[in-house]
Amino acid sequence: MHASLPTIERSLQTGDLLLFSGKGFASAGIKWLLGSTWSHVGLVVRPAGHDARPLLWEATPCTDLVDVITGRPAGGARLVSLHARLDTFPGAVAVRRLSKRLDALQRARFAGVLRQLHGRPYEKRWLELLLAVSERIDLGRENLTTLFCSELVAETYQRIGLLDDVAQGGLPSNEYTPRHFSAAYDLPLRQGFALDPEVWLDRVGMAPEMALAA
């Protein structure tokens, strides 16, 4: 399924997923290693206000965009304009919306996660972590002093009650990869939530990329 951002923007809510398929060397390595179309993942944040435009909560090494909280260019765990992120991203992007909206308590918890983890550095040992995940090596207890993109998404979902944490029998947040949040992986969410199918965003000059491995 395909749609333009203006068509889908009004329906985006806090907690919806954005999946990114990058074209750089690091992105290609991630996709090849995981057998995935996607190399990066982030979460939509919908600010209060009728005319408020959506934001993106993500962990990235990029420092090209202004963080809306600090007003300065930043990498790591950051909150940036969704439109600005899409305008500067050279690859394919898809949206996966939650099947229902977060309630007031879940939104409050989301805001708490954002306050606590915002500004933490990006995990630069991503290749080492992905190798450990792909080889099913026990990474042990997660260390949130630095964050990888899918780790940030999983940690956020776990803290707002959408995803089982370790105490409930789930994976540590640092064992999630972008593939876990794709349509190729049937991610079990809690409290009656599910993720809708991927909607590819039609963008000028951008075509869907095929997965590098099955």
How would you characterize the overall build of this protein?
This protein is α+β, with helices and mostly antiparallel strands. The chain has one domain (2-201): endopeptidase domain like (from Nostoc punctiforme) (endopeptidase fold (from Nostoc punctiforme), Alpha-Beta Complex), CATH 3.90.1720. Helices cover 26% and strands 15% of the residues. The chain contains six helices and seven strands. The protein has helices spanning 5-9, 25-34, 82-88, 104-117, 126-134, 149-159; strands at 2-3, 17-21, 40-45, 55-60, 76-81, 92-96, 199-201. Strands 1-7-6-2-3-4-5 form a seven-stranded mixed beta sheet. The longest helix is centred in the middle third of the chain and has 14 residues, at 104-117. The chain is globular, with a radius of gyration of 16 Å. The two termini are 20 Å apart.
List descriptors.
single chain; 214 residues; endopeptidase fold (from Nostoc punctiforme); 6 helices; 15% strand
Concise account of the structure shown:
By secondary structure, the chain is of the alpha+beta class. The protein contains six helices and seven strands, in the order E-H-E-H-E-E-E-H-E-H-H-H-E.
Low-confidence stretches: 205-214
Q: What top-tier CATH class fits best?
A: Alpha Beta
Strand order of the largest sheet: 1-7-6-2-3-4-5
Number of domains: 1
| Reported CATH architecture | Alpha-Beta Complex
Task: Tell me, rounded to a whole number, the average pLDDT.
Answer: 86
Could you tell me the CATH topology label. endopeptidase fold (from Nostoc punctiforme)
Q: What is the CATH homology-level superfamily?
A: endopeptidase domain like (from Nostoc punctiforme)
Structural class: alpha+beta
Termini separation comes to 20 Å
SSE ordering = EHEHEEEHEHHHE
Instruction: Summarize the main sheet.
Output: 7 strands, mixed
Number of strand segments: 7
Q: How helical, in percent, are the residues?
A: 25-40%
Radius of gyration computed on alpha carbons: 16 Å
Shape: globular
